[in-house]
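Hey team,

Filing this mostly as a record. A colleague (T.K.) asked me to run one chain through the structure pipeline before their review meeting, and I want the input and output archived in the tracker in case anyone asks later how it was produced. No errors, nothing strange. Just documentation.

Input sequence:
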Amino acid sequence: MADTRLRGYGETFAAALVNGSIGTIVSYATMPVVMLVSLRMWFAAAALAAALGLRRAWPRPRDRRAARHLILLGLVLAANLTCYFVAIRETGVAIAIFTSYLAPVYVAVLAPRLSGDRTEPVVIVALAVALAGMLLILAPALGGAGIDPGGLAAGVAAGAFYALYLLLSKSLRRSGLESTGIVFVIAAITAVVLLPWGLAQSTMEDVTVVNVAMAALLGVVTTALTFSLFIDGLHFIKVQHASIIGYIEPVSAPVYALLILGQRPSLWTLAGGALIVAAGVAVVTLGDGEEEVYG
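Output structure:
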């Protein structure tokens, strides 16, 4: 059991760490963001289709309930991204990030009721510490004037949809579906759902070599690979733990910005990052493991 827990923590941590590079990668692209994300998902689906085809391991849900959950998961991811984009447009990046990263709060409340995963006291403490870290990271940008209520609601909805995404992913792994098959389906659904919006925002001038290359990098590395790693890791650890480890993503983002773009992180970022890392360490070292590994 200890070995499987280590695998789960390692996979979710690695996925969050790599996904911290998304902001830096996006900074090189000039394509409208919705089109960029849709194209990202097309590349992810294509990469995973090639891998699944070579292995002849296409996703085969065991029953209709699992099949419905798989389709629902793709729609939930599309809704999460849509709400997140609206929140960024209406409230700014800082508010959008903070409200969407309330997802672990929802997971801590809902997981015991929906998935049967008990939320331990250490998770509650670690969650409070991680949220404090996020506040410190975003503090310089959170002091704006008024906040648009609609944009704020969109950010909260993005967090709620992400929480549902985590819980559904956990359920599908327990049903025996492989993570690569799950990610293939949800990437394809999200790509199709977001494509009309993306096309409405874009022109042929947006289809440049750099933009396509960045979309391919995002799709293959920060979607096909990292989503598969994260969902596979959910099979071996509690969903509450995985959601808190996901806070490593905004912590690692300034590191990529420093190494690639030369942007130095502020003291606020360093202090907030230290709190988030401490929260992750507490969950890994003090949290309980899964009572049972499924499938």
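Quick notes for T.K.: Confidence is low (pLDDT under 50) at residues 291-295. The chain is about 75% helix and 0% strand.
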